[in-house]
Every structure is written in structure tokens, then in C-alpha cells.
């Protein structure tokens, strides 16, 4: 399953829906993670907050290909994208294992193929390097075999990289 998470606004959602199985719009119409870890322990992979992101752990956890489209924010995800990713901690368990010769949380849904980040809005060389490292680490933490980062000056260029 291919999932696209984006912060482009609802005008892009229809266009993106044709390119994947599910689209998540990071529109900020949800509560931030409360850090209760209930999605880890009390009710695995489901958030106690009853909003649009209640099942985000299951959706992201079952994605073979995760595509994140984000505005560059000093070499990191936009605040709305980061908020969604924070709410998806339940894709793993509180237990630990070794992956890539490092300690990581055990995956709840197994391994995946591609963690792809499409960054728009321009980025300096240092910001690009930070994004590459961030995507690589996120991919490893979430059990993705590989990561990829694409930089665009304008979201209008999306068609060529999806």
C-alpha cells in the first residue's frame, strides 16, 4: 500500500489520491500528541484522541511505501507533518531490538519498502544534508528498507517525482 502524507492543502488532495492508495492531509485540524504512550500499551496502534489521526498508526504502519510531501522548515518537516509523525509512534512497540547494528523499537507491522520525502520551498546545502539524514533515520526507525529525498523549488513540479 502506498500512503502519501502532505501539507499542501486540500486543493492537492484529489490530484494525489490518483497516485496512491491513501492520502493523509496534514491540515492541523487535530490535537498534537499528548505523550501518554497509550498507543503503545493500553490500546495498541490506536490513539485515545477521537480525531482524524486516531488510526494513523495503523495506516502508516501498513504502508509499504510512505511518501511525505513537506515544506522545508530549516532542514526539517513542517510543523503539521511533524505533528502527524509524532502521533504515529504506535507503529512500533515499547520493546527493543537491534536493527542496523543499533537498538530500535520492535516493529508492530514488520518491514516496509520505501520512505520517500519530497521537500518543496527551496533548501540550502546544509538543509538538504539534514533532510537526507533525517529521512534515513526515520526509515530505519520505522522499518523501511530504503529512503529517498527529492527537492523541488515549487509543488507544481510534483507530477514528475510521484
Question: How would you describe what is shown here?
Answer:
By secondary structure, this protein is α/β, with parallel strands linked by helices. The chain has one domain (2-161): Flavodoxin domain (Rossmann fold, 3-Layer(aba) Sandwich), CATH 3.40.50. It is 27% helix and 30% strand. It has five helices and seven strands. It has helices at 10-17, 56-61, 79-86, 125-141, 158-161; strands at 2-6, 22-25, 65-71, 92-99, 102-107, 112-120, 144-152. The strands form two sheets. A five-stranded parallel β-sheet has the order 2-1-3-6-7, sandwiched between helices. The model has no long low-confidence stretch (mean pLDDT 94).
User: Which descriptor suits the 3D outline?
Assistant: globular
As for the number of domains, it is: 1
Question: Termini separation (Å)?
Answer: 14 Å
In the CATH scheme, the class would be: Alpha Beta
Oligomer: single chain
Q: Major sheet: order of its strands?
A: 2-1-3-6-7
Determine the number of helices (DSSP H or I, runs of at least 4 residues): 5
Let me know the largest β-sheet: 5 strands, parallel
Q: Which bin fits the share of residues in helices?
A: 25-40%
Q: Which structural class do the helices and strands define?
A: alpha/beta
CATH topology value: Rossmann fold
Count the beta strands: 7
CATH architecture: 3-Layer(aba) Sandwich
Q: Evaluate the radius of gyration.
A: 15 Å
Following the backbone from N to C, one meets helices and strands in this order, namely: EHEHEHEEEHEH
Give start-end ranges of low-pLDDT stretches: none
Q: Report strand %.
A: 25-35%
* Full CATH superfamily name: Flavodoxin domain
